[in-house]
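Box 3.1. Reading complex inputs
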Amino acid sequence: MGSAAVTAPLLEMSGIVKTFPGVRALDGVSFAVERGEVHALVGENGAGKSTLMKILAGADRADAGTIAVDGTPVSIDGPRAAELLGIGMIYQEFNLVPELGAIENIVLGVEPARGPFLDRRGAAALASTVLSELGVALPLDVPARRLPVAHQQMIEICKALVRKARLIVMDEPTASLSDRETDALFALIARLRAQGVAFVYISHRLEELPRVADRITVLRDGRAVGTRAAADLPQNELIRLMVGRPLDAHFPDLPAVAADAPVVLRVRGLRSGDLVHDVDLTVHAGEVVGLAGLVGAGRTEIVRAIAGADVPRAGEVAVDGARVVVRDPRSAIAAGVVLITEDRKAQGLVLGMSVRENTTLAHLDAYERGGFVDRSAEIRVTAQEIADLRIRTPGPEQTVRNLSGGNQQKVVLAKWLIGVARVFLFDEPTRGIDVGAKAEIYTLMLELLRNGAAIVMVSSELPEVLGMSHRVLVVRGGGIVAEFARADATPDKVIAAATGVAA
Amino acid sequence: MAEPRGPEPRGPEPREAEPSVAEPSEVKRAIEQDAEAARASAGRAGWMRTPAIVVGLIALVVLVNSFTNGHFLTPGNLTNVLRQITYNAILAVGQTFVIITAGIDLSVGSMIELTGVVMATFANAMPFGGLGLIVATLAVGLAVGCFAGLVNALPVVRLNLPPFITTLAMMLMARGLAFKIAHGQPVPLRSDAFETIGTGYVLSGVLQPIGLPGIPVAVLWMLTIVVVFGVLLARTRFGRYVYAIGGNEEAARLAGIAVARTKTLVYVISGGCAAVAGMLLMARFSSGSPQTGIGTELQSIAAVVVGGTSLMGGRGAIVGTFLGALLIGVLNNVMDLIDIESYTQEIVLGAVILLAVILDELRKRYLARQR
């Protein structure tokens, strides 16, 4: 390395711009990492963290900006290029081959070979060298899928080290670790840092940052709004940096809930899966209750259990005072509870079907005449919904796969609007759709409220939760840990509750 | 999915279990039909749709006819083709339902055998004959076929086991059971009640002047099944759910569709279709034989796929399946007429199936680019 390399940072990204249709995801971000530094990257969902890291990993390309490693400008045009530069990525979803053991996973793609044959002893030696450097012990013969998450994570780190990574990016590494496992991970990071390995550490758990990070860079709305030493950045200040903008004005005025509004949805003692426990929830006619919390906190699981998408293990659900036995989505829908899922492509739509077929899918019995589906009635109702929701489509027969995200989301809504649901559970209703469509969806929610519906809305966008909810419930660890009335729900209070920090 | 539609290749047609010459069929026509089916199944996108294909198909038929010195386009031969595809088309109808849900039914071939043997044995044990015997026998066959379909479906819907496995197991069990019941030999029918179904014709008086012996009764059975199940799939709520489940099972479940019940019914329909095919075959040869179905499950799948139904589920149609079966039947028929030896016929058939699915894929990509 030349003298430039000695003084230049390990990684320097400058003026990175990335635009997606309708969104400027990164707006001239500069970000540098020194050798042997743990640099935390924080920001709200959508602030641009993942986009920035994808560009670094070669999974995406920047529209503008430069990247330099050791002071030398580089072009990262693919994952392989990133690997050769010593950049290792550990995504939240691990990339392990589930049926292979630790050794095979660690050397995957860089297997030592003897002629045409795999060199198993060489592989074992290589893997155990790395493992012993890390000072961790792993069962080597057990398929990865049967190892605990913490062990899988170790394997991911080893994979990066075997490839001579000098910079390891970790996305939410502690999201599914226990406290003890987290301690072990931090110890490991400290050891590697001492050996000169640098880390980019992405986390929503603000309270752990001072323990692990040297510096913190905050991203907001696609810009880097500050880089500070972790020790000099109190949590309150950090939160202010993250959310420090006035809440967008594009939310419509929520009409107040009538004082005598009846309870529409009442949930008591809900348990579901391994996560959701003891959830109590009451929503009145004309009311929106927002569920805030971090990714993985259990918000989606709560609404899925209420809607029967997952079968609750315990608890009572009542709609308009009548107890509902939630066995499956059918029983919930019959009781007037519908779920507008987060992942519309995987769960909300049959992509290969037309707008008409998707619209009537859940209420097809109402469009049946003499044993046959009445297509003209279907077309009528679909055309009506297309007009009401301003779905941009050439017509009812268009395949929904060909619609834009916002219009697909409107088709999902149309599917439930043609029925007589009482409770609408929205899971990330505006994720990935443009501003105009967002506003239309909010307007639609207001209309549902006017008709006396009750709405529960899960959203990772804090402004949305705060702007569109009468009450905000904060979910952490599968339970509801805080409740704020609209007037009291400030960003810092909600984030503090969601991250477990005392505000 | 917009209308799924595709011809179905001729499935397993029990070519006569008896010494059979390979059925003649017409390659070109087959190819054309494939393409047509493929296009029709495409959905939108004008020029790729049927008309061009139909024109091409007609050109092909004319061409083939000249190859065969005019033997192909005779009423008698065309009737023969229809009769030959009967069993496969019926199996393929049931198979279409299963495949649209993204499943597969490998047991239909041996279900033909099992139901045939059971029905022949049952019919022989009955003291009466006539229509009563036909109805009772068919009812027994349907019960066996539908029950087997139920057994196929339960592990699929309850334990999420792959249908490939459950129906493979059923294929083995049903075939073994058929052999045991029949003691390894065909079971000759003692009653002549099934003669009309097996070898009879309708409308003979009307059609004989134009050189046709009439419409074979078995062909009427086939056409009835094609129409009834075609309507069931295309026009009813049940049919819509079949497509929805194949297109996105989770979205279907979250929409409140009774996924398990619908999928179960689909396998029951397939078993029932196999029973009807088994009955027609038994009637044709006046015996129930434990060997007639070997390979027919794959032929039925070929008919479905050539007919434009996606093995990934969510897309397809009975019309296409029927055209697929017809295409394969014509192909076999023409190859017979022009004296192509049976080994070569297998090669051609395989190539046509491959070509059909390749064309279908290319068409889909073309359509995707159009957007």
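In summary: The CA atoms of residues 294 and 482 of chain A lie 13 Å apart.
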